[in-house]
Design goal:
DUF4996, PLC-like_Pdiesterase_TIM-brl, signal, globular, alpha/beta, single chain, 11 helices, GP_PDE_dom, TIM Barrel
Length: 320
């Protein structure tokens, strides 16, 4: 740079107005963390006055294999609230998703899950929908529990239904896995009143997840179960009943305890004869009747159709 250019530059800088520095933003008193959708859904499940909620039985398997990653992804794209899935242990100690004790119904293989290694199970392919010998084969594999939770991380609640000959082992291994992955906050687990009471306080997983109290109409009245089990703070009472009056008798007690009443119309025998299949013909006489009785959570094999119905009734936003 020549001496003349230096003089011109210096004069220009001296003549330039002094502009104030921009004010620094105040440091927030506490860092605000954004909740995941799963955490928001836990709060919703804990609110007995919140919108109705949908639990997809083994995922959204009307257009995908049950308990498959494709079925779970479909649920999440539809804005379903909870996925119910089945976890059991392989011969070599891996956690995989499968409802039956054998792979016969849902895959192109045969044999007991407990007698097969993870590699053997991964070599199989899942059949479409609920399976059976006439169901088309798909390219979907049996997911591990870890693969499924990674796909669903923060996006949806997951209701873990332990299966197989050693349920305590499933719960124990699930706790280790879920703690390592940091996804315990999106899990729900249930035990059955009466049958499983001896396990309360003995399953560490239950203290780390959202607890659900399962009830069957073969035992004491629902209101009595609420009185004896509310100390465990279940978010919902998942009620399996042979007749609707059993359910209706206890709904007020369920709500008064701060919990939700959960019905399971995926099969008529679990919901007093009211079912998804009948709801395809007359939704008001089935899903609508359960709504009228006080159900606000529905375990269903028809999550897509139920989502449309509940939105039309104004009790749940579509795709929420």
């Amino acid at each position: 740079m020549t001496p003349m250019l230096r003089k011109i530059l210096a004069a220009t800088l001296l003549a330039a107005p002094c502009l104030p520095l921009p004010a620094l933003a105040a440091e927030p008193a506490a860092q605000q963390t954004t909740q995941t959708r799963a955490q928001q859904l836990v709060a919703r499940l804990r609110d007995p006055d919140g919108p109705a909620m949908i639990v997809a039985h083994r995922g959204c398997h009307v257009e995908a294999p049950e308990n498959s990653l494709a079925a779970f992804e479909r649920c999440m794209r539809l804005g379903i609230d909870i996925i119910e899935t089945d976890v059991q242990i392989t011969k070599d100690g891996a956690l995989i998703l499968m409802h039956d004790t054998t792979v016969d119904r849902t895959t192109n293989g045969t044999g007991r899950v407990a007698d097969m290694t993870l590699a053997e199970l991964k070599a199989l392919r899942l059949r479409f929908g609920t399976g059976g010998p006439d169901a088309p084969m798909t390219g979907e594999q049996i997911p591990t529990f870890e693969e499924a939770m990674e796909a669903m991380r923060g996006r949806i609640l997951v209701d873990l239904d332990a299966k197989g000959p050693d349920l305590p082992a499933v719960w124990a291994q699930s706790l280790t896995l879920l703690e390592r992955m940091g996804v315990l906050d999106q899990m729900t687990v249930k035990l059955t009143a009466g049958r499983d009471d001896h396990l309360l306080g003995k399953v560490p997983l239950l203290d780390k997840v959202t607890y659900l109290q399962r009830v069957t109409s073969f035992g004491a009245p629902l209101s009595d179960i609420v009185a004896s089990h509310s100390q465990y703070r279940p978010a919902a009472y998942t009620v399996v009943f042979l007749n609707l009056p059993y359910f209706e008798e206890g709904v007020a007690a369920v709500r008064a305890s701060g919990a939700r009443a959960w019905a399971e119309p995926f099969w008529g025998a679990t919901a007093g004869g009211y079912s998804d299949e009948l709801a395809m013909l007359d939704p008001d006489a089935n899903w609508g009747r359960l709504l009228q009785a006080g159900a606000t959570v529905f375990l269903t094999d028809r999550p897509e159709s139920l989502a449309v119905y509940l939105a039309a009734k104004g009790v749940r936003p579509f795709g929420s």
